[in-house]
Amino acid sequence: MNRFRFLLRVSLLAALVLAGCQSPNVRREKAGHLMIVGGGLDDDLRGVYECLLKLASAQGKPRVLIATAATEQGEEVHSEIVGKTSALQAWSPDVQVGVITRETSTEDTVKAIDEATGILFTGGSQARITQRYRPEGRETPEWHAMKRLLARGGVIAGCSAGDAMMGEFMVLHGDNTGALAAPAKPKNSTVIDFKMSSGMALLPWAISESHFFERDRLARLVVMMETAGNRLGIGVGEDAAVHVDLATGMLTGLTPSDSLLIDATHLETEGQMRRGLRARLIRQGERVSLRRLLDNKPPPPAGKPPHVPSVLPITSPGQNRQLALWRLFMNAHHPNRGVWEMNFEEGWKLQAWPDKGKWVSFEVSPE
Questions:
Q1: Burial class (CB in 10 A: 0-12, 13-18, 19+), 77
Q2: Residue 128: what are its φ and ψ, rounded to 5°?
Q3: Domain coordinates of the chain in residue numbers?
Q4: How many CB atoms lie under 10 A from the CB of residue 204?
Q5: Entry pTM
């Protein structure tokens, strides 16, 4: 009986994940799909590859382009092409795989995209992607071809740099302390290591961030949201991915590894401190409507309880260090556990505590 219940739970979870990847031909509206992968897209990440290929098969035989614009020249590009092609064909022997690089001409790139049902952007530098396909926010024939692919119900997936480039704006470089200090300093200050630029403008409701938990990019994402005027941010960790249905605005967790959805509706800035923030972990199979969040202004976050914070220790290096930020939000999610705090070597700190439902309230500030 216990084994039966276990198998039933596994089957239901798989059904929920694939339900978030419904083929666009079952809808009247075709606006396409985005898949945002935080980094480290291993060949055995079932939820990611199954969702990508299912969405790419909505119009018949899947035709997926591997886009290597972000990846360093030479052997690394070759390795990405061979690896991703082999992985796609392992999951779907019938998939047609093509490649577009930075060197592919505009004419050939547009033709390839117009014939594709999906694109998979590899990792590297997001600046290389936008320099090639949307320099300084300017529309190009290649960018219009990507928008046409989405309009006919196709899918665009991005890993690492392909994650970071999804929104209207993206970060070029910078750490958390540089981000927290940036608005208080002159824009031409050489002291501040933080810079944003135009992204690919494929994701309309939020800014996305890659390698999120492993590189502690929470404060940086909050400042990006503040600077760009975005209420919502999506932090996706390594081995983690989310699916965004552009027709409905539905966000779905695809992997056992979590992502973090941040709501800055009630953001308040006091010097370099940011408060009035909420966040919730997005687990595999969980679905959240980004449209509904933006259409219905939520009440202010829960006030900070008058407790002495429980400081979460960090052991460096290793997995304990890489997943400490995730552990803090897991701890802060539980009711009646007070305030949790983390102090980062970069010189900033985070405090978080339970809010309503699955949400957590938090604030970030210099240490």
A1: buried
A2: -65, -35
A3: 20-295, 310-366
A4: 16
A5: 0.89
CATH 1.10.760.10 fits domain 20-295: no
Identity of the residue numbered 341:
E
Structure tokens at 248: 């409905």
Residues whose CB falls within 8 Å of the CB of residue 242, separated by 6 or more in sequence, listed in order: 35, 36, 234, 236, 251, 252, 253, 254, 259, 282
The burial class, CB within 10 Å (0-12 / 13-18 / 19+), for 26 is exposed
CA dihedral 227, 245, 62, 96 (to 10 degrees): 10
Rounded Cα gap, residues 121 and 241, in angstroms? 14
What is the full per-residue pLDDT of the chain (367 aa) written as tens digits?
Answer: 444 343 434 444 444 445 567 544 334 356 899 999 999 899 999 999 999 999 999 888 999 999 999 998 777 899 999 999 999 999 999 999 999 999 999 999 999 999 999 999 999 999 999 999 999 999 999 999 999 999 999 999 999 999 999 999 998 888 788 778 876 544 444 444 678 899 999 999 999 999 999 999 999 999 999 999 999 999 999 999 999 999 999 999 999 999 999 999 999 999 889 999 999 999 999 999 999 999 998 899 999 998 899 999 887 777 677 889 999 999 999 888 899 999 988 889 999 999 999 999 999 998 8
In sequence order, what are the residues at sequence separation of 6 or more whose Cβ sits closer than 8 angstroms to the Cβ of residue 353? 302, 304, 305, 332, 337, 338, 339, 340, 360, 361, 362
CB atoms within 10 A of CB 292: 11
